[in-house]
# Entry
Amino acid sequence: MMLITGDIFIGNLKISYDDDVKRLFDSSTYLLSNFENVLQSSSLAMREDKVSNLQFSPEAFWNFFSSMSIEPILTLANNHIHDLGIKGIENTLEFLQTSRIRHFGVGLAERVIVPYVFTYADKKIALFACSSNDPEVMSIKADSKNVGVLDIYDPRLLQAINSAKLTSDYVIVLPHWGIEFINYPAIIQRKLAYGWIDAGADLVVGHHPHIIQGKEVYNSKSIYYSLGNFIFPNMFNKRGVLNKWRKENSRSIVIKLNFDQNGNPLISEHGLFFNTNTNSLSFSNESIKQFIEKSEFLRIEKYDFRKYYNIFNDDIYRYQRQRRSILNKVTAFYPKHKSMSRFKYFLYRLSRKLLN
# Structure
């Protein structure tokens, strides 16, 4: 059995999981996840255009991955792989290579268009990882001279998927995309996924929005737009301000992929919840319930694009109203800081504002 999850950020914390989750890990062969970290460094400059900088320590990495018998396969095609620049990518790749951890998704343009291929259950599986530099994502695209990620809009991708299908048994596309904290994918995402499946993809599994989105079935193939945060503790951003996740941002879906004796794929889902108070992972009925509810609106025979557009826009309005609520404004006005009291940090910001 192969497990596919959403985003992983480890930091330097000890991550744990309960016995039921451990049994799921131990009964599976591979763990395919989006690894949204770079190897920690105090000497490298942080990426200037992002508020958060996600770094992991080797100790935290091994504490998590060595505690399970499942083998990780990590996609690095995300918007945080450049958090410490090109040198940060090089250090991360060197660490993963030395550690013999399977990984893919970042490199020069001619490299990232080539799928990562491995064998599972006597099936040759091809993986494509991609992202975008859309304002809501801000990944850095690869070109012939600069290391980056495969663009979801790259016209070469459809042909690459088509070619991979001719030589592989099963093709999975893993896009890092979408609008953060929104419950539903944009219509352009849905159309992109349709195109990948028409080109030969068997499964599309997305991540990035930090929230569960639903599943759509198109031409008998499954599209998961966002699996949510698999492992993502509360964290301090570059300014030292605490980013504390809501419960809805700590829910995720894990996909179980297997093949029957005739070679047909068997796919099922389980709900998970990551407790950010204890940094522990457990199963969650609420997560699977939300996943099912959101999937209902992706049934195009019931909600055509015209109806769906209103649902999508209403959810954006919901989120914007939530962001502008009095409670949210008070929290943002008086945040918890890593090295200062709330009052001291308030005075610090006030003095900087007056000086400017």
